[in-house]
Amino acid sequence: MSIPAELKYTKDHEWVRLEGDVATVGITAFAQGELGDIVYVEVETLDETLEKDEVFGTVEAVKTVSDLFLPLSGEIIAFNEALEDAPETVNSDPYGDGWMVKVKISTPSEIEELLDAAAYGELIGA
Amino acid sequence: MKNTALTHIHEALGAKMVPFAGYNMPVSYEGVNAEHETVRTGVGVFDVSHMGEFLVSGEDAINLLQWVCSNDISKINIGGAQYNCLPNDTGGIVDDLIVYRLKEDQYMLVVNASNIDKDWAWINAQQTLKGFKAELRNISEGHSLLAIQGPKAIEAMQSLTDVDLASIKFYSFEVAPFAGLDYVIISATGYTGSGGFEIYCKNEEAEQLWKKVLEAGADFDIKPIGLAARDTLRLEMGYCLYGNDIDDTTSPLEAGLGWVTKFTKDFVYSDHLKYQKETGLLQKLVGFELNERGIPRQGYDIVDDEGNRIGRVTSGTMGPSVDKGIGLGYVDIAYAKTDSNINIQIRKKVIPATVVKTPFYKK
Q1: Which Pfam families does this entry report, sorted A to Z (chain A) (predicted)?
Q2: CB B293 to CB A62 under 8 A?
Q3: Contacts of A36 in chain B (CB under 8 A)
Q4: Where are the domains of chain A?
Q5: pLDDT-derived band of residue A37, with 50, 70 and 90 as boundaries?
């Protein structure tokens, strides 16, 4: 199970890539595997400012719907629109082209609350 | 939790296993969309041994079955099968099932796994109530069922038997040697809309059957298929699933099972159902397609253009072969006609949808 060391993670199985004050967010390889074939990623919070743990979208697999929780407070400044036509990219490349949103971080202190790769690996029993 | 005779094989193949109706069942192998596609264009094999089988024998077998079933059992020839419904005595449905006529006085009922105990108790209670003397045997535990489905099923399986598979008519069966086993039931039935067979055998024969089926199908790229694809395949055909679209509270007529409800005979609750038919239905199970992007799910509200609730979704999915959100649901009778405009409440959004004739998927 792939858990890139340079990323941060949440207990909701999202990953966070930090670049300056911008965080790119997606779901982990473990999460996409559990969900199965992803058929729809819906994000309608673009340009909105949300608190940490608020729902910023939903990911739908054939059999299930899961809410997506924002790992860090901030403004949603980008949505990966390529997922509208190719949601299966989340299955095939969860840490790369399957990214979901970019967030302009408003509360940098929250970063400390994220899990590192080792802690996330422990969470999923990897 | 119970295992089928093949659970260890599914696990060895790396299937994702889930508890379903008390059984440890494979939900997917390589992924639901790929498995769905395999059945639509090639051939796939399902282990559906969780399904229940009852034998009903003796002179009173037909009398008991005419009483508990809504369809006309007298129309089934030996070697024939019939889709059927067990109405309950409060206006709902105990189960839906297939009735096979094995011999002059012997029938096999194939029932949903989740309802085996309930159905068994119900049929026995009705037999006592009416004083019938049919012999009833629950053979569910000892029997396995493989469904071999897809447009290439006949060609892929022909090497396993001398029976001309192409000559078995839809909803009929042969009892014949197959895959080196002396006698199995080869039934031209299924739950996918893509053609093929269902094969009933004893548990101790299941592993040999599975292996031979995969060997014979290898040249046709046969693949094992899980329950998730079974659900998307059946939903694209608009087939009801017990527990979703029909249950103890849904009327057989409102569920669209009027075609298997025959008022030419008396059966459980038939007077009331006849009255319901004559006075008109209040709601109806319909198929619908979303006009915009989205996926309907079981339990979502169906609303009118003003947002008033007019029904509920009972099954929904993204249809892999039709590439849109499709579903079944009960709507007020005023919205049940084909082409009616309805809306599905999906979380905070209202997505317009259209009532359509099923099947959603047409070959």
Answers
A1: GCV_H (PF01597)
A2: no
A3: 16, 28, 31-32, 228
A4: 9-107
A5: very high
| A39 and B CB contact within 8 Å | yes
Locate all alpha helices (DSSP H) within A1-126, ordered by sequence.
29-35, 82-85, 89-92, 117-123
pLDDT tens track for A19-35: 999 999 999 999 999 99
Interface of A with B in 7-26 (CB under 8 A): none
pLDDT value for A1: 76
The Cα B60–Cα B39 span in angstroms is 40
Sheet strands (E) in A1-126: 8-9, 14-19, 22-27, 38-42, 49-50, 55-61, 65-69, 74-79, 101-105
Mean pLDDT of B41-53: 98
Three-state secondary-structure class, residue B123: helix
Positive or negative, the CA dihedral B56, B66, B195, B315 is negative
Quickly state the pLDDT bin for A126 (edges 50, 70, 90): confident
Q: Is B347 touching A (CB cutoff 8 A)? A: yes
CA distance A85 to chain B (A): 11
Over range B264-275, report the average pLDDT: 97
pTM of the model: 0.94
Q: Does A60 touch chain B (CB under 8 A)?
A: yes
Reported CATH class of domain A9-107: mainly beta
Q: Which domains does chain B have, with CATH numbers?
A: 7-49+142-236 (3.30.1360.120), 282-356 (2.40.30.110)
B31 touches chain A (CB under 8 A): yes
What average pLDDT does range B30-52 have in this prediction? Answer: 97
Token code pair at residue B256? 């669209």
pLDDT recorded at residue A14: 97
Q: What pLDDT does B89 receive?
A: 97
pLDDT at position B331, please? 98
Which residues in chain A are closer than 8 Å to B293, comparing Cβ atoms?
40, 84
| B contacts of A35 (beta carbons < 8 Å) | none
Neighbours of A13 (CB within 10 A): 23
Q: How many Cβ atoms are within 10 Å of B270's Cβ, its own excluded?
A: 17
Per-residue model confidence (pLDDT) at position B76: 98
CA distance A112 to chain B (A): 32
Is B232 close to A37, i.e. CB distance below 8 A?
Answer: no
Q: Annotated binding residue at B155?
A: no
pLDDT of residue B53: 98
